[in-house]
Amino acid sequence: MQSAPNLPVMWNLSLRGSSSKVQILNLKHRKTHALHCLRSEGNAEFENSQENIGLNSVTKEAKHKDIWNLFREAQQNIFILNKKRLAAVEELEKLKKEKDELLERINQLEAESSQTVTKKADESSLLWKLLLRIDSMVINGLIGVEEASSMRNLVREHQVKLSEFPLDVLQQGDAQVLAELRRFPTKGRNGLHVIHICTEMAPLVSVGPLASYITGLSCALQGKGYLVEVILPKYSTLDLEEIEGLREIEADAYSYFDGQLHANRIWNGVVSGIGVTLIQPLYYVSMFSRDKVYGYPDDIDRFAYFSRASLDYIAKYGKQPDVLHIHNWQTAIVGPLFWDVFANQGLEDTRVLLTCQEFDSKCLVPPEKLELCGLDPTSLHHLDRLQDNTNPQVVNILKGGIVYSNKVVVMPSSDSEGRALHHPGLEPTLAVHKEKLFFAPFGLDNSTWDPSRDVYLPENYSVEDIRGKSICKVELQRQLGLVEDASTTIVGCVFSEISDVDLESLKSLVRNTENNDVQFVIMLMNEDQMISRKVETIEDEIEGRSLKVVTEETEGFSHLVFAGSDIMLCMNFHDPVLQVPLKALRYGTIPIQVNRKTAGFSDSTFGNMPLRQALDLIKKNTRLWNLKIMEAMEKDLCCDIHVSAYISIKNM
């Protein structure tokens, strides 16, 4: 047995054991509580975590859905844009194709037009090359006058198919050309054959208005089916580069002068589609080897020689024109020469037409001068023939042309400043022969004044397509600072001089124009400062009108004024210098005379229409106005009057 002293220890141990249990229980309880707390906190955190995960999942899903929607919307937009882009590309390709087709059509039309023009030019050139080669054959003695006449008839009527004529043959001698021509059957001829015997022709030699008149009229007549040729002196100053196919004929042609026969060298070629023959004196070499065309003391002798040589050439080599057209005093002597010497030399059916553009005192000479070219002074020095009306001691060459011509075309004359001239000493003769007279304006130079090819216009136009005229109007308004409106009527006025009376008449016309929808453009073609100041006062004196005064001419601006205007006020219908009425008609613009004391052209489309009537017609009857415009643009008053004169000659 253990001793008693060991019990307290055991008790202590027991007590200590119980305490430990309690501690253990407490620890367990605390552990349980801690675990519970941890579990609770863990559950809360877990739940919170799960909630956050759920929320994040919803947010992400929403965002994903939004992104997908945006993606699908973007895809749809891209699809639509691609579709539109493809449609735009397709439309551009279609437009490009249409543009290419249009350009191709334009090029085709231009090529056809060019080919047509070239073909016409080539045919005209070939026609004259053949005709002039026939002249060469006669001069060289290869054929007689009768055969030459029938060959000319054959060629000029185009019974020979010119396009089939072998061009290489033309490069050979006259014998080869003759052999080729003889292959074609001869047929009769129709139409009129006109030969101009003159001293100027543009662009070969140009001193005054005669040069452009000859070329313009010849081209216009040939366009109407006439056969027209020109005979000129071979001046040393001629621009020979302008002559196509210039040939010098080897054999000489002889003509009479001052009691003897003299040799002449003949040259021929084609100018602007017109056959041209040049006569070069071999004995009187100096006659046309001078610096100037006119202005020498022996001018009468020079042009008398040329006139006689021209007639000798025509008669001797079988030419049988319907009309010999002579011009001014320089070739007026052809009239008496023809009827007194040549009419019975195979020219019985030929008639003579004289054009008077000037009435110059230089044509007054002693009667003895007539003998130089083979005329009889005794028979011609009479009042009813060549004797001058004011000075009986001399003869008047121009008077002889009037008396001996079948018809006379009088054209308005002017001095260097544009003032009209009278007919000094010839009024009695013109009165006696008034039944012969035709009055015509000067012809225009088609190469310069043609709206279908005018280089000074922003847009060309023609009778077939007149739309370009409206573009010209707007451009004129723009350059002058006027209101730009193609529907506004523009009244132009172009002049080089103006009298005080005409100036007041012009101001009155502007002031009294009731229609406010009118613009006035006044243009002075004169550098005289005094006249400029006088004209510039119009703007100051007239208020409340759309009016511009132009006193400084820039290159080509007058062309724009003619093209852009609807109406053109004219100081004078008979205007040989500026030719305002003719230019107006050519550009589809009504010519109206400022001072209507005298009538305009008798056959003008617009007659003697006043300004107010013209303005009313534009506004109230546009269709009729346009018809008149197109009719006017097709007119060639100068050519039409000459055609009337030619026809009247043939009907005599």
From TrEMBL:
One matching Pfam family: Glyco_transf_5
Every Starch synthase catalytic domain range: 193-410
Keyword set includes Transferase: yes
Reaction(s) the record says it catalyses: [(1->4)-alpha-D-glucosyl](n) + ADP-alpha-D-glucose = [(1->4)-alpha-D-glucosyl](n+1) + ADP + H(+)
Keyword DNA damage recorded: no
MF term (GO), any: alpha-1,4-glucan glucosyltransferase (ADP-glucose donor) activity
Coiled coil spans: 85-119
Biological process terms in GO annotation: starch biosynthetic process
EC number(s) from the headed UniProt entry: 2.4.1.21
Annotated keywords: Coiled coil, Glycosyltransferase, Starch biosynthesis, Transferase
PANTHER family registered for this protein in UniProt: PTHR46083, UDP-GLYCOSYLTRANSFERASE SUPERFAMILY PROTEIN
Protein name as annotated: starch synthase
Organism: Noccaea caerulescens (Alpine penny-cress)
